[in-house]
Write a structure and sequence with these properties.
Helix content: 40-55%
Largest sheet: 2 strands, parallel
Number of helices: 11
Distance between the termini: 12 Å
Structural class: mainly alpha
Bound molecules: zinc ion
Number of strands: 2
Strand order of the largest sheet: 1-2
Number of domains: 1
């Protein structure tokens, strides 16, 4: 394991906004959880009619694979270089992350590196603290912008300069160019499996629906919640830099990415859940990869920041 120092100040942060009020943050939290709650209720009500164990397995399996492609691949490997691996693993992780349909790997990484460089300042591409202005309408606008609205804005100029290093890697360039293929594969694979496992066309269609479309919706919503909820709700053991938060729910749902204040404090650490109870599925996968010889130079915070137990 390679130790890293605490967050090096990589850019000025003088323009970090004031935190939003409690009422404003409560409104955004409600807006995030209504779709989750409605989806859970809808799933329970159709159990046995279009949703059974085969469909649930396809949904869960594709969720885990594409989410790990984002967290272990796009985020911890490509954006932050928190460990090293070989070209085949790089290609596979880039392909899996692309199946989450959040943009090609190079574009995703460029946006996320910009987010860290300018966190919660006006140049942050998706801060909830700057886009809205004052009042309730401002809160709604800020939340919408941080959650999904930013994705529909034009790219910042010179976005490419953030990924010059990755463009030198053939495995990453190739996976990036094949982005449309990975989207199709991420939808076709659960459809094919659903068809084979049930021996029916209806099974294929339901595989496409649950393992493909519903899964993309859920991974989108959970990933975007790291940008919105995890800059609004949760604890801040490392409060000095920005408004990032540690949020238990998204620590679980987003495979460890919800320990977002830890992450902003130690961006190059492969481990985001720094206390023993901060469940971090992505880090466990990286440890497993290291054990199997598929990951090395795994980076961790230097010394023992408060709370680190291993
Ligand atoms: Zn952040
Ligand atoms: Zn990051």
């Amino acid at each position: 394991m390679t130790p890293i120092p605490a967050a090096a100040p990589d850019s000025p942060h003088e323009a970090v906004a004031e935190p939003l009020s409690l009422a404003a943050r409560a409104a955004t939290l409600t807006a995030v959880f209504i779709p989750h709650a409605r989806f859970g209720a809808a799933g329970a009500s159709v159990w046995g009619w279009g949703l059974g164990w085969v469909e649930f397995g396809l949904l869960a399996g594709m969720y885990v694979l594409s989410a790990l492609g984002i967290t272990v691949g796009f985020h911890r490997l490509f954006t932050h270089k928190s460990f090293e691996t070989n070209a085949v693993v790089r290609f596979v992780l880039a392909a899996l992350g692309s199946m989450a349909v959040q943009g090609s790997v190079l574009r995703w990484v460029a946006y996320h590196r910009r987010h860290h460089q300018h966190s919660d300042t006006p140049d942050d591409p998706h801060s909830p603290h700057h886009a809205g202005g004052r009042g309730l309408w401002g809160v709604v606008r800020g939340f919408w912008h941080s959650h999904i609205g930013w994705a529909f804005k034009p790219d910042p100029v010179n976005l490419d300069r953030y990924v010059a290093d990755l463009k030198k890697l053939t495995s990453v360039r190739a996976a990036d160019a094949l982005f449309p293929l990975w989207i199709v594969l991420g939808l076709a694979a659960p459809a094919a499996l659903g068809g084979v496992l049930t021996g029916s066309w209806a099974g294929a269609l339901l595989g496409l629906l649950w393992g493909g479309l519903v899964r993309v919706f859920l991974v989108h919503h959970v990933t975007w919640s790291v940008n919105s909820v995890c800059h609004l709700w949760g604890s801040r053991p490392y409060p000095e830099k920005d408004h990032s938060r540690n949020n238990l729910l998204f620590g679980l749902l987003a495979m460890g990415e919800g320990w977002h204040n830890n992450h902003h404090a130690f961006p190059s650490s492969a481990r985001h859940g720094l206390r023993w109870w901060q469940v971090d599925a992505s880090y466990y996968v990286i440890r497993l990869m290291a054990w199997a010889g598929l990951a090395w130079k795994v980076r961790l915070p230097a010394g023992r920041p408060a709370g680190i137990v291993a």
